[in-house]
Amino acid sequence: MSRCTDAFKVAFPRTVPILAGFLFLGMSYGFIMMEAGFPMIYPIVTSAVVFAGSLEFLFVEILRSPFNPLLIFFLTLMVNARHIFYGLSMLDKFKNTGWKKYFLIFGLCDETFSINCDVKLPPGIDRGWFMLHITWLNYSYWVGGATLGAILSHFVPLRIEGLDFVLTALFLVIFVEQWLSQKNHIPAIVGLLSSIFSFIVFRNILPRPDYFVVPAMIIMLLIFGILRRREKMND
């Protein structure tokens, strides 16, 4: 139990910025669902079961449209294809985590990945427990925010425009923190250049401009694969 408690003490402070972002975004999702005329149970259940961030916002229109499973499948794949790469990069880190890995896989989101992928833990802190705490805390923030938004929508009229910028600011802070904590900046530079290139080239080709993330991830994977092969050849 001490390993669990010690890991929680290290994990919780790292999730406080995400708490602020998820609380506002989750509340905005709850408000949007309620304004669209859905019962309160909808934002609560979808946030807990789907747990897919941006896809959940699209659920508002999906649930109001004629049922088209093929369209939903491809839309989900386009929006959340980046999680395939997240999962592949976390395979080694999830080894030897026992029963924890099932929730670690389910609860893997952008913010959780950004913390767990390259965290430097103090001596004596169990990585499995640390990752589990990061995962369930971020999960509870999102579900709690959506639930709170659904409840408050009955009592407090709020304007939700601009709240989506909270996560943009959050990712910028995480990026700067990791840049300052790492000596090797090649992965960050590759990520930036791949994203910029993909946005410029694919924003007018794909159905939605924000779908540029998928080709950007593919470009990153190819570049990292080449760099990895060169490292092995040099060794």
From TrEMBL:
GO cellular component, one term: plasma membrane
Tagged with keyword Lipid biosynthesis: no
Origin: domain of life: Bacteria
Pfam families the UniProt entry points to: AzlC
Keywords tagged on the record: Cell membrane, Membrane, Transmembrane, Transmembrane helix, Transport
Location in or out of the cell: Cell membrane
Listed transmembrane segments: 16-34, 41-59, 71-91, 136-156, 162-180, 187-205, 211-227
InterPro entries, per database record: Brnchd-chn_aa_trnsp_permease
Gene Ontology annotations of biological process type: L-valine transmembrane transport
Residues annotated as signal peptide: none
Record flagged with keyword Membrane: yes
Membrane topology recorded in Swiss-Prot or TrEMBL: Multi-pass membrane protein
Location (main, coarse): membrane
Similarity remark: Belongs to the AzlC family.
Protein name: AzlC family ABC transporter permease
